[in-house]
Amino acid sequence: MNNWFQSYLTNRTQFVELSQMDRNKYTQQRFQSSRVTSYGIPQGSILGPLLFLICNNDLPLNIQRAKFVLYAEDTSVLVVDKNEESLQTKLSLVMKQLENWFLKNYLFINTTKIAAMSFHLCCSKPPFKLCILLRNTKLNICPK
User: Fold this and answer.
1) First to last CA, the chain
2) By C-alpha distance, which of 124, 102, 117, 4 is closest to 55?
3) Which of the residues 27, 51, 74, 116 could staple to 130 if both were Cys, CB 3.0 to 4.6 A apart?
4) pLDDT digits (tens, 9 = 90+) for 11-31
């Protein structure tokens, strides 16, 4: 079984084909390219979401002060606090823990897909802008 998974996940060939059709549905231009990928799960595979959940199954057990929603190939991290400064502190701690967990498990965080939202009960206050640090660098969602 281990050999089957290893062969499934290593040295896969990734193929891309781009073509353009005219109004009569004839292909005019075609670009094809293939390359060997040394690691990773093939995009769009049936096993991809299952393998993701198996990989990330212990994530909630290793991160304190946060709750998780794991679904298919997405992970949502929920950090809650009534005080804005405490929330920012918790968020920074959670991000540091996430960073360490991802490093230990040979995974990476796609920083282009990180977003932060804050919810308030009271409308009289302007929303608090959270800042997410990753590898001691502020992400582009941080306030100026």
Assistant:
1) 51
2) 102
3) 116
4) 788 777 877 777 777 767 677
Strands 27-37 and 67-71: unpaired
Reported as type and span, the H/E element at residue 71 is strand 67-71
The CA distances from residue 12 to 22, 32, 86, in Å, are: 33, 17, 45
Token pair 């009960």 in the structure block, residue? 121
CA nearest neighbour of 60 among 46, 79, 87, 41:
79
**Any bridge partners for residue 14, and if so which?**
35
Q: What is the DSSP letter of 125?
A: S
* Enclosing H/E stretch for 31: strand 27-37
* pLDDT, tens digit (0-9, with 9 covering 90-100), for 33-52: 888 877 667 777 778 788 87
